[in-house]
Amino acid sequence: MNLFDMLGGSAPGTAGDAAPARTMCSRKACREAASWKLLWNNPKIHTPERRKTWLACDEHVAWLQDYLQTRNLWRETLPLEEQ
Questions:
Q1: Confidence (pTM)
Q2: What are 50-74's pLDDT values in tens digits?
Q3: What percent of the chain lies above the pLDDT cut of 70?
Q4: Contact 4/11 with Cβ under 8 angstroms?
């Protein structure tokens, strides 16, 4: 058994009938589906136009946004649109 078997999927780059991966909240230990994306960057190490992304569920979007704003990293919060 490998890690991908335990997660219920197939290894990257292999064909399989596994369901598409769902997006999960970036908050530590949260496994809820994400419905928001928080765009941020660290001006000390990133160019101004670069955006990093955290995903958030409805319960944790405010907490993660506050975390980023407190550190002057937050740029924008947008609804997550599934593709």
A1: 0.70
A2: 999 999 999 999 999 999 999 999 9
A3: 72
A4: yes
**CA-closest candidate to residue 57, choices 76, 40, 79:** 79
Residue labelled with tokens 């593709």? 83
**Domains of the chain, residue spans:** 29-83
How far apart, in whole angstroms, are the C-alpha atoms of residue 79 and residue 82? Answer: 10
User: Which one, of 2, 22, 18, 21, lies nearest residue 10 by Cα?
Assistant: 18
**Contact predicate 41/75, CB 8 Å:** yes
Percent of the chain with pLDDT over 90: 69
Nearest alpha carbon to residue 58 among 21, 30, 28: 30
